Amino acid sequence: MESDLIRIAAHLAPKLVSVRDDWIRSLESLVTHRSTPTRDSVVSSVVSAYQIHLLLQIVPFYLEPTQIDRFVEELVGTLTLPESTLFETYLARYTEFPRRREDRWQPLFRFTFDIALAYNHKKPSSTESRAISRHVPRLVLLIGLAVAEAFGDDETIAELRPQLTNRVN
To answer: Residue 19: its pLDDT value, please?
Structure first.
């Protein structure tokens, strides 16, 4: 089973990198910035950390609890950039909440704030954060689809594809 986890993670990792990079490009119309290696690294770290946060919500449907940490370890090495401390900081921001109903939106609020802050280097306005948050459902669908494909879950693929096609952003 260990080799299956490694194989699935190896199949999923490049898809998640592609999803991350495509999603970041989709934000270009919302933010005005000049690309710099530092800023690009921060944005990629933020999105990669949020991807892992979302993955931790999805993979329990496919894996036993004892397999999740090993599976995520396999993915993290591929998703992170050389600035792994930055990735870990953002991941902690999104995963630190207990699973209480009233906290369920905190990771999303923090994620949209972190993305806007990474681009603008100043506290974002609520308008900027809302504009970014409108793009998050597409990111969630793309990650869900990539995970379903990696695990060969045809039923979920059939359910998610039309939702993705119907999304404008």
So the answer is: 94
CB 86 within 8 A of CB 41: yes
Rounded CA-CA distance 106/89 in Å is 15
DSSP state of 34: -
Quick one: pLDDT at residue 66? Answer: 92
The arithmetic mean of pLDDT across residues 9-22, rounded, is 92
Give residue-wise pLDDT tens across range 115-137: 888 877 777 777 777 888 888 99
The alpha carbon torsion through 17, 36, 45, 88 (nearest 10 deg) reads: 150
- Between CA 44 and CA 47 the distance in angstroms is 5
Residues in the chain: 169
